[in-house]
Amino acid sequence: MSGDKDRVARWYHQSNRLVNKAFIAIRGCFEGIWLGVLSHEQAARIDEVYYDRNAMYVTESYNRGGLFPWEQAAIDAHFDGVRRIVVTSAGGGREVLALDKAGYEVVGFEPHRDLVRFGNSLLAADGISAEIRPSERDRWPADAVDADGVIVGWGGYMLISGRGRRVAFLQEAAKRLPAHAPVLVSFHPRERDENVRFRIITRIANPLRRLLRHDPVVFGDALAPSLVHFFTKAELESEMSEAGFELVDFGTDGYGWAVARCVAGQSIQRKEWT
């Protein structure tokens, strides 16, 4: 009888592993096919529709919820002496509202126009002079002012499509920052047990992308549910270094996040903070 119980238990665990492997393979194939055919503009539209339909980001309860614990800890540790903060991927204003109430001078930028409108109405309702301005997707805001620090809003860095665009984004940020100014970014960390999924994605997607003359996807690109990049610490550090930043802190507690400091500082004339 004991042997029968042990046999059933083994069969269960073996079949469970097979199902999990099959799910990973199916998911990787699904994402690989879609990433193979999507243009940059189509992928951006999928992300826009996701935020159109996700009501959480235009609720007062969410946007009045304050900073996440990992955000607060990173700011407490690395934004000492910072007075002026630019927030990109500002969404409906959660970070802007919390930072303004904490005493910072802050201006937000967001590419989704409905989120911009909601965020500004929320700020105005509280009598806050800070604002969220519309910006172009995947680019540093053209009218961004000089600041002492930058926060790329929750998950916004991983939504910038392609290493080249991410590095260019950070390079433009560096032009508006003094030396040693902090930048906080957040992202999905890449775990070793997800490598099979990412391998399937790239093997399926890139032959299709070559046929369609699209830029290739890279290991770590995925649909979750829109196009994002999952980072390792080494990969993030490499992008930061190429853009003129030094990675000084990295964590995956609560969410993937990192703080880097500007190495060279501003090389252009400062704009007035208005």
Secondary structure layout plus pairing:
Layout: H1 2-37, H2 40-53, H3 60-63, H4 69-78, E1 84-88, H5 94-101, E2 105-110, H6 113-125, E3 132-134, E4 149-152, H7 163-174, E5 182-189, H8 195-212, E6 221-223, E7 227-231, H9 233-243, E8 245-251, E9 256-262
Parallel strand pairs: 1-2, 1-4, 2-3, 4-5, 5-7
Antiparallel strand pairs: 5-9, 6-7, 8-9
Short key terms for the protein model shown above:
nine-stranded mixed sheet, Rossmann fold
Can you offer a commentary on this structure?
The chain has 274 residues and is α/β, with parallel strands linked by helices. The chain has a domain of 184 residues: Rossmann fold. Helices cover 46% and strands 18% of the residues. The chain contains nine helices and nine strands. Strands 1, 2, 3, 4, 5, 6, 7, 8 and 9 form a nine-stranded mixed sheet that branches. Helix 7 packs across helix 9. It is globular. It starts with a helix and ends in a 12-residue tail after the last strand. The relative contact order is 0.15. The C terminus is likely disordered.
Apparent shape: globular
Series of H and E elements: HHHHEHEHEEHEHEEHEE
Q: What percentage of the residues does DSSP assign to strands (E)?
A: 15-25%
Named at the architecture level, the CATH assignment of the domain at 38-190 and 232-262 is 3-Layer(aba) Sandwich
Average pLDDT across residues? 93
Rg calc = 21 Å
Number of helices: 9
Which spans have pLDDT < 50 for at least 5 consecutive residues?
267-274
Helix content: 40-55%
What is the CATH superfamily classification of the domain at 38-190 and 232-262?
Answer: Vaccinia Virus protein VP39
In the CATH hierarchy, what is the class of the domain at 38-190 and 232-262? Answer: Alpha Beta
Give the beta-strand count: 9
Structural classification: alpha/beta
- CATH topology of the domain at 38-190 and 232-262, anyone? Rossmann fold
**Main sheet, how many strands, which sense, barrel?**
9 strands, mixed
End-to-end Cα distance:
79 Å
